[in-house]
Structure formats: C-alpha cells, structure tokens
Amino acid sequence: MSKQRVLPRFSVGVGDRFAHQAKAQLAACIQAAEAGVDVIPVWNKSNREHTIIGTEPSQTRAAADAAVKSLGWEKPYFLDADHISLKTVERFLEPCDFFTLDVAEEIGKPARPEDVEAFLAAHPELLGSVSIPRIAEPFKTDAVFVRGVANKFLAAVKDAGKIYRLLVERKGEGNFVPEISMDETDLPQTPVELLIILAAIADERIPIQTIAPKFTGRFNKGVDYVGDVTQFSKEFEEDLATIEFAIKRYGLPENLKLSVHSGSDKFSIYKSIHDAVIKFNAGVHVKTAGTTWLEEIIGLAEAGGGGLEIAKEVYREAYAHAEELCKPYATVIDIDHARLPSPEVVQAWTSEQFTSALRHDQSNPAYNPSFRQLLHVGFKVAAKMGDRYLRALEANHEIVARNVTTNLYERHIRPIFLGK
Questions:
Q1: What pTM does this model have?
Q2: Do 359 and 229 sit in the same domain of this protein?
C-alpha cells in the first residue's frame, strides 16, 4: 500500500464548535510536550455541527492554522472531516487532511452474495482455528460464521472504499489520513470479527491509520463511561493484539492504531487505555469532542455578570427545547429529567453553583450529569445567539481559555498519555 501522510503515535481529537478555542486547546498539547510526550491535535467538527452553527470547515482550518502560527507549534496537526459520507464530503475536501469515513448506515445491510463468497475464497486463513499472538486462546470459526460477519460489515467496507477513492481522486494519494468508524453498531466486535473487518479493509486497499471499533458499555456525551471497566480493558488489549497481527498479515500501515470515539470524558477507562498502550507499545487516537463547548459555558458562568447570564439563558432555552435538542443524540445521552433543575432555580444560582453542577468533577456532590448532558447538546442555543455569544467569549477570553486548557490537559491528556 502506498505511503500516507503519517499520523504520529499519540493524537487527540479536539472539537471547537465556535472556532474560538484553538489556541487554548493547542496550549494543552504544548504542556504535554513540556511534560515529555508528543500529543498531536486533530481538530474535528462534524457536518451536522457545521450545519447547526452555520459555519464552514474552512473556518475551523483558519482557526487551527492561526493557533499553530501564534504559539509556534512545529509538530504535525490535522483537521478531521468528522463522520463524512459521499453525501457530505464536498465541503471538507479542500480544508481537511484527516477523514473519518462514516459507514454506520451501511453496517448490517446485506452485502452482495458474490462479494461475500469472493471474500471467503480469498481468506482461507480465517476458517478453522485462528490464533492471534498475545491472545491466549485461538478462535474457532467456520464458513457460516465468517460469512455472517462478512455479510454484516462488507457493504460498509465497500462504501468506505468508494469514499476513499473519491478522496484520492480529489486530494491525491498520501495527502490525508483515513480513519474508519465501526463503533455505531449493536454489539462490540470480537477480536476475530475485527480481524475479518481489517482483512476486508486491506482487500479494499484503504490504508487506514486509525479504526474506531465498538466497545462494551455506554459512551454517552460528556459524562463518564458506564460499564464494566475490566471487560473494557480486556477488549481494548485484544483489539490492540488484533491490529498488531493484522498489520503484519495484511500489509496495513505500520502506524495503524485504535481510535476511541469516546463521546468525551470517559475518565474511568483512561488508565486502562494508558496501561494497554504502554504494554503493547502501541498508539491511540482519542476524541474528546465537545467538552470544549462545555468549558466555554463554565468559563462564562465563572466570570459572573453578563457571562453568567448567558450561561443561564442557554440552560433556560435548552430546558424549554429539551426534546428537540436531545433527539439527534438519543443513542448517546441518558438524561434523568427528574434531576434537571428548573430554569427558575438556576436563575437564582451563583457562579459557583452553576459551575459546580456543570464541571465534570465527580467528587463534588453538586455535580449533575443530567444538567451537563442537556447543556452538552444545547450548543444549538448558543449558535442561535450568534454574535452575542461570540462577543461574550471574546470579552471573557482569559477565563474561558484557562478552563479549556486545564480541562484538556489535566482531565484527558495527563491520564491517557502520561498515566498521571
């Protein structure tokens, strides 16, 4: 496979919905470098978010480039066309150099029978006893099993191939990092299922540098992981072993690594990720996504005055339109509406009361995950405020930036990449 633009070992996906925090986010990566580890920023913003906010990917690119220039960052950095399909890729082609190929709609759609049979004929090594080094027991498979897995995922891989070839045609081979997202499916992939998927990706000649499988447990937006951490650790290590094996067996890129589409703030699994990555001498890409938007609201609330009033107004409108705001995110939020304070109660809160309910500090008894999740999906409210919201960010730049940098470095980068 041809050499691609290379994504380094450790990278972090950072969302910046209103394109005002790129410097504050990059400052966290600079802190990581000073602490002895290179963590490469990958700015990501989905088509849905651009559409809701009324922005273009070119604006995200401009913000990232300006931050890099301003802070003198000389290491690589990327802009991710987050979860694109053939329908949505056009606006991302020029500014982006990292493409998350979203094939969720195709997962589970029956593949063409002739494609399944051709795959089976091409991969006799996947039948019978399949041994993956560093996984204790071999996996027992047969034609019925492999055919079933191929039938579930092959159409999705073929779709990814179409998107990839369009990107090559338009951007040129080697000029971007391809990632495939397989996390939006019903059950976690077993190691042998992941191996089958990787074999299909290699057949399709997509030189992916990261893959996002599905893991056990709930990965809700903006709150901690809900699930069995021991089981997650086992799955994560087995996925690393499978990738290591697939690189050698199928000629996939040597820097291929796991991508954790975390939905943000999965603090309880960060140690597992760190320990496994060190054990396997592997890389990892972790998306922190929209927590930056929440840190903006925390910063505004902390600033008091007009900033606190805007934070309260965002909550009031989000509360009033909760059903509409939550609908697109129904599979990745769990809000207990009985735990949502009324807007009247919140209107009387001090800065400290608001930030204590919102900031992801599980040791604080005032922390309210339902309040946090509703505000997480409430960025549409701020978008409707337009310049008034952006002016508030600019007026309170220092306090907002401090929250963004501290959150990204202390709560994400340090535990994942430094193990501290």
A1: 0.95
A2: no
